[in-house]
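Record AA9 family lytic polysaccharide monooxygenase, 320 aa.
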Amino acid sequence: MKNVARLAAAAALASVVAGHSIFAEFEVNGVSAGKENGLRLPTYDGPIEDVTSSAVACNGGPNPLVKFSPNVIDVPAGAEITARWIHTLDTDWRTGLIIDASHKGPIMVYLSKVSNAATAAIPSGGWFKIHEEGYDSASGKWAVDRLIADRGYKFRIPSCVAPGNYLMRVELIALHAAGNYPGAQLYMECAQINITGGGSLSPATVNFPGAYSGSDPGIKFNLYQSPINYVIPGPRPVTCGGTQPQTTTAARTTTPAATTRATTTATTTTRAATTTGGGSGGGQQAAWGQCGGISWTGPTSCVSGYTCKEINAYYSQCAP
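=>
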């Protein structure tokens, strides 16, 4: 019986880890930049759950960034980008697991202009969104569903973005445990790109941390409600001449709340930056949420039926 219990626990833990994912490769107009090339990467595929942490910009913190590509990838303004997420750095995106299908949620892309993308420190400010996709009520699909089905995620660089070096922040938010905060799992890495051509767009920007609050309806969200009424967090994407620079423009569900967020973007950074996250270890973490690890300050106990299980020194998660 003890062996059976051990096997069941190991299987449960394996399913938790299998949910993780990492942005580890991208293509420019159908041409791969090369696996891990032009990217700043941790070796671990775990999420960030504390939206007030500096790690929410380009990862880091509980997932230390240890792989820094020396290369900056040329990207023409208006180019189509294909982001390749994979379960671990050893996974082949063509055949292996991308992310567990239960990890439904939105995908967003931000840019931050820097002097030299290969050497610049990760900025906290100066980020603007160029793409977002959430839940499509017509098809009943999330952006993550499209990522899994296509084994990659396509979006475009706006044609009006000014030329120069940028960090490109590509982000996936898994909402399966987002009913409480912290609980939403943010998966993001940053690519080092040089935009050529383009225009003179100089958009308003947000900070990371600061763009999201733990109480935002796109961060604290019950995935299992019906009907689904989801508001993507952060500002709305920039536009070129009034045209939305997205591959899919109908994917975001528009609600009165979303309209309000779009008209109050300028105050988002100030409001969110004053919100403290992670707590002081009190309360209970939701199913599959982070419950421990080096530097973790959030809940360390789990809701009924779940136990805090160590994945590694930096990350423990509530699992059955």
